[in-house]
Amino acid sequence: MRRVEFFRHDLGEAELESVRRTLATPFVAMGPRVAEFEREFARLLGVEHVVGVSSCSMGLVVALRALGVGPGDEVIVPAMTYVATSNAALHLGARVVFADVDAATGLVDPASVEAALAPRTRAIVAVHLYGQMAPMAALRAIADRAGLALVEDSAHAITAARDGAGPGQVGDAAVFSFYATKEATAGDGGAIATRDGALAGRLRRLRNHGISADAADRHGAAYRHWDMLSLGFKAAMTDLDAAFLLPQLPRLDARRAARQALAERYEAALAGVPGVTPVRRDGRSAHHLFAVLVPPDRRDAVLAGLGERGIGCAVNYRAVHTLSYYRDELGWARDDVPRAAAFGDRTVSLPLWAGMAKDDVDAVVAALRESS
Ligand SMILES: *Cc1c(COP(=O)(O)O)cnc(C)c1O
């Protein structure tokens, strides 16, 4: 039996060397390497400003706060996402209004966003699911017409594009994750990209308790008192994170190409497996996850069958509004967001990482055939 892990990173000598370089400096928390990472990541994205943060989860909180979201506001979020997206709005005292998704792609449906607009709506969060970008042009038009902020949850998409635009090029801010299994990783970490210089300034302040200077600015010079100007968070990236991430940036395109070849092999092989449908994709996907849809009454058996055969798998995600907290504490019902609920009952994520062999794909497909 050929075992296949769900994910394996390719970190090694380049990252060790980069961290070693940072350890020879006085900075291990936020310092010059964060600034270097922010410059390089901004260049990679083609977006003017990048602000390094401690995670995508905190980045979403900081971004929504910087865009004015607060108590009493409503934030529209697709229900097919990770809980971090909607929780960010709740932590700011805002109400989450779930939008429904396209039944074939799981991406937010602009018509559902339009239907969710209300007088208290303050922001829309788009989610780029599995590496495919949300329909940003349509969402931008809705946000502009209604005077709303548009944030991208780009945890699944660095190297993606749609209609000629990448993450951060259409939304007011795009928030990235560098958690262990994402396209680039420092174990944890995140970044916010924006084309708006004034917003970038607010983001820098909010990631550091709303105080007026960063630690690196204070190093070496005569002591100057700092001040607190707004209520912020402890949410900055560290130089150790940045040291880890910098050597990975030039490898992202090659990693994406490797995942695309594996995804195409999956798609070709799965064409002959009844009851298993790859999630539809178009545009340039970052291929963060390879997700298939199976019949809802077979999903748990498929997950168990893959597990018994040594194949790593996951569910990304059960629709957020169906989870206990959102159902019991906030009163959401399955049928309030029916297509997301149905999609979340059917989705299974298969192993996908740049170093996987073609034989691994074939082993996963064989196990899936036996399990479904
Ligand atoms: C991973 C993930 C997050 C949270 O990222 P962290 O960096 O772990 O906080 C948010 N949204 C989506 C869609 C994710 O997959």
Write the layout of secondary structure elements.
Elements: H1 13-23, H2 32-45, E1 49-53, H3 56-66, E2 74-78, H4 83-91, E3 95-99, H5 110-116, E4 121-127, H6 136-146, E5 149-153, E6 173-177, E7 190-194, H7 197-206, H8 215-218, H9 239-245, H10 252-270, E8 277-278, E9 290-293, H11 299-308, H12 324-329, H13 338-346, E10 347-350, H14 358-371
Parallel strand pairs: 2-3, 2-4, 4-5, 5-6
Antiparallel strand pairs: 1-7, 6-7, 8-9, 9-10
Helix pairs in contact: 1-9, 2-9, 3-4, 3-7, 10-14, 11-14
Bound molecules: pyridoxal-5'-phosphate.
Explained architecture:
38% of the residues lie in helices and 13% in strands. The strands form two sheets. The protein has a seven-stranded mixed beta sheet with strand order 1-7-6-5-4-2-3, sandwiched between helices. The chain has helices at 13-23, 32-45, 56-66, 83-91, 110-116, 136-146, 197-206, 215-218, 239-245, 252-270, 299-308, 324-329, 338-346, 358-371; strands at residues 49-53, 74-78, 95-99, 121-127, 149-153, 173-177, 190-194, 277-278, 290-293, 347-350. Helix 4 links the parallel strand 2 and strand 3 (95-99). It is of the alpha/beta class and 372 residues long. The protein is globular.
